[in-house]
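okkk here we go again. third time trying to get the S-adenosylmethionine bound version out, last two times i messed up the smiles copy paste (missing a bracket lol). double checked this time i swear
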Amino acid sequence: MHALKMNHLILKQMISRGDTVIDATLGNGQDALYLSQLVGETGTLIGFDIQSEAINHSKERLKDFKGNFHPYLKSHSLLKETIDQEHLSDIQAIVYNLGYLPGGDKSITTHFETVLDSINQGLGIIASKGVISIMLYPGHAAGQLEKEKILAWTSRLNQKEIDVYHYHATNQKKSPPELLILFKK
Ligand SMILES: C[S@@+](CC[C@H](N)C(=O)[O-])C[C@H]1O[C@@H](n2cnc3c(N)ncnc32)[C@H](O)[C@@H]1O
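finally!!
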């Protein structure tokens, strides 16, 4: 099963109606739409992206969502202060889909330092039994480096607090997307 599909299946298992969740990289809003369907009209979805194009695409895609949707035109490195300002707690899921905006400017991409800073903040606000998922794209040099740095950092997380899982194909000639999942105990 493709890693993107596996990501959605795990999120479906972990997220219930009424939950509060974060899409840390809104992009074209496909993951956000899926998350909105999982949390439903009593749920809350907070989104981040540094490109107004991504914010606009996501707003358009979620125009029929009846729950709370707060898309922020700012970096996911401001995750914790934004959640604190919103007086939100019990964050059930934080979703990262790394790389560049499909169909957009390929030079605007995620950076591992910023992503790790954000994940570190996310670990401080995620609920017990919550999940942080990260889609990695090692098919190009910058994505490969990003993957290596993030895998190395997350593999050192305390196993008493977090379970870290890595789902990836082992027999593909190309380098398809890979899924990293952090389960808070
Ligand atoms: C692969 S796309 C996300 C795809 C999206 N999840 C979807 O379903 O359509 C990656 C996005 O991350 C955004 N991004 C890059 N750096 C960011 C940052 N520091 N904070 C938030 N978003 C960022 C890019 O602008 C881009 O839109």
